Amino acid sequence: MLAPGVMLEPRAEVGVGTGIGIRTTLEAGAFVAPCCMIEHGVRIGKNAAVGGHSYVGSGSKICDGVKLPAGAIIAPRTTVRDRSQAKALERFENRGERSLRDASGKGDARSVEMTAGKLLVLR
After folding, report:
1. Is 14 a member of any domain?
2. Which of 30, 32, 83, 102 has the most other CB atoms within 10 Å of its CB?
3. Residue 76 lies in a domain
């Protein structure tokens, strides 16, 4: 379902069962797999991809060419700048955690986890 004000540029694709929030932009060649939730005001860059069953919080930015793995959970107002951050997400997910941490390790990290069906954002 696409909310009002969503901008899909040429070759942008949205999978079945995905919800896209108000004022979200999918740039040229962006791909969002099925069963995702993309909140309001998100920008998904050129040729970027969001894996299936993922959540991207309000005001987040997925930069050009970044590929998020399936099941990714991105906290609101987070910028995923490059593939190393997406790879860090995969490593944490393989340990049974779902979090995105700043690749620099300087404490700018935001992590997200599911507890009893509630989304917790730790800053």
Report:
1. yes
2. 32
3. yes
Structural domain count, the chain: 1
Q: Is residue 1 assigned to a domain?
A: no
The token pair that represents 30 in the structure block: 């962006």
Please state the rounded mean pLDDT for residues 17-26.
97
Report how far residue 88's alpha carbon sits from residue 110's, in angstroms, rounded to the nearest whole number: 13
Predicted model pTM: 0.73
Distance (Å) of CA 25 to CA 8, 12, 17, 61? 6, 10, 18, 10
What's the pLDDT score for residue 99?
45
Considering the domain boundaries, does residue 39 fall inside one? yes
Task: Return d(Cα 109, Cα 47) in angstroms, integer.
Answer: 25
User: How far from 77 is each of 4, 34, 57, 58, 93, CA to CA, in Å?
Assistant: 20, 22, 7, 6, 20
